Amino acid sequence: GAVVSQHPSWVICKSGTSVKIECRSLDFQATTMFWYRQFPKQSLMLMATSNEGSKATYEQGVEKDKFLINHASLTLSTLTVTSAHPEDSSFYICSARVIYSPLHFGNGTRLTVT
Amino acid sequence: GENVEQHPSTLSVQEGDSAVIKCTYSDSASNYFPWYKQELGKRPQLIIDIRSNVGEKKDQRIAVTLNKTAKHFSLHITETQPEDSAVYFCAASIGGGATNKLIFGTGTLLAVQP
After folding, report:
1. Checking DSSP bridges between strand A44-51 and strand A32-38, what pairing results, if any?
2. Which member of A32, A46, A93 has the closest CB to residue B43?
3. Strands B72-77 and B101-104, how do they pair?
4. Helix or strand or coil: residue B29?
5. Which of A33, A81, A85, B58 falls between 20 and 30 A from B52, CA-CA?
């Protein structure tokens, strides 16, 4: 149980384009979803917290207009990287949980912006 | 802001030896402390967690201890095996209720030498 699916697993896009990443909880309804970013050999950096039906809460230093998060239902959250640039290249991982339960991660998306 | 410090950053042990990874947290209100194992290119997997009302928890070869007064917690792996080689992240909960989120440590690369 507690499976989180993330799509796509990897994506290459040109500078200036936008990329959408989907995160789905397959066998449970997630009260909250989180988006993390991970640089090579570094830790997981929390970008934003997303609750169904409400606006995402962004961490300090994360541009909300750059990283658009939509949490349309209890099983789906999307992250759109707008006007992507090479410095946005990274490993993006979503996670989901039911309140007071452990956090479960998606398989991650490796974004490369050329 | 809130942060979680993790040591050491790298740890090399011989197969069969024990490994200990230590973390400290800054938010005295933190009440949930999970440990994740991440293999190269894969998602973090929860291996054990502990809540603040418990001082120690054990699951086969893995144990976690928590010292709330000192605000630190540790992961202990006994009888290490080559398949234990991975990056391990500690985390601490920040905030309460629906806003509860996890802040991760910087990670420890564990290498178990056969």
Report:
1. antiparallel
2. A93
3. unpaired
4. coil
5. A33
| Contact residues on chain B for A34, CB-CB shorter than 8 A | 101-102
Q: Which residues contact B47 (CB under 8 A, 6 or more apart)?
A: B35, B36, B37, B59, B62, B88
Chain B segment 55-84 residues within 8 A of A by beta carbon are: none
Report pLDDT digits (tens) over A14-43.
999 999 999 999 988 888 899 999 988 889
Cα distance between residue B88 and residue B37, in whole Å: 5
Amino acid at A77: S
Encode pLDDT of B72-111 as tens digits.
999 999 999 999 999 999 999 987 665 678 999 999 999 9
> Which residues does B96 contact at the CB level (< 8 Å), separation at least 6?
B29, B31
